[in-house]
Amino acid sequence: MNAEDYTPEQMAGQRLMVGFDGTTFNAELKFLIEDLKVGGIILFARNIESPAQVAELCRSVQVCANGCGQPPLFIAVDQEGGLVARLKRPFTEFPGNSAMTGVEDADHFAAVTAAELKSVGINMNMAPVLDVAPLGFGSVMEGRAFGHDPAWVARLGCHVIKGLQAGGIMAVAKHFPGIGRTLLDSHLALPMVDLDPTDIETVDLPPFVAAVEASVSGVMLSHILYRKIDPKWPASLSVRIARDLLRSRMGFGGLVLTDDLDMGAVNRHFGISEIIQRIVLADIDIALICHKSPKIVQAYENLVKVMDADLQAVLAPTSSLRRILMKKKDL
After folding, report:
1. Preceding peptide of 175 cis, ω within 30°
2. Where does the record place the Glycoside hydrolase family 3 N-terminal domain (predicted)?
């Protein structure tokens, strides 16, 4: 199907990536794919038992999507290694980014991880983490970052990106524009950063600039309020950060995703209708909702209204729908 053939309902669904309960294809997944027409799902430990089970789950959801006339689903997982790795043994377990001593480690991680994800039908990895964690700062990302030097983070991160994508797995760099200098966990509350834009450009942005140059498939936005860039909206809802900085200034034409909209940083401060309005305004492609909740249906309904009201913008050559469909052609 071409973008012009999509209904507002299909367009809305393609903008959603959602989590679910269970380890097998079930009524919940059937509803998400057939009724809400979601464009992607994300797997967590609660969905994973064994390689064979994951492979059957991924096969089943793709069969369902195909059977109801939908394009292939993005099937994502957080497989960073170390502290955040949803796939445990018998999948290969790595010590994580902070333990890498050179590009050989990054290449090995990417090659093995890509092969294992592809073997079970997963096509997107929410990795690598490109946050720069300063020494002695107590960063919330200290155990997950490659290190404290932007050039080092950029170098190893790009090796991971290129290795994953060479193996057929879309890489998603996170958490733009960088959360290495935050102490508060955005799962719980809304962290605020008072850094000058020039400081962010010197320390936090270089790994993401390198990722864009390496043709990373996706970039995930953080739920951090960078008050000297946008005093009102966190990056995940910010026109100034997502559209003006990432898209316009840095020239990123791939997929832009929010972090999980269930997290306290946004969930406690903004309603779903307001969130969806901001996502569309900021030229963000995919809203990520990682847990079963009424919020998924509410997000879908709000997106349908937007798609229906502004069909011309939705079908523009640079629109989110077209970016999503271009990525899905490779699947």
Report:
1. yes
2. 14-308
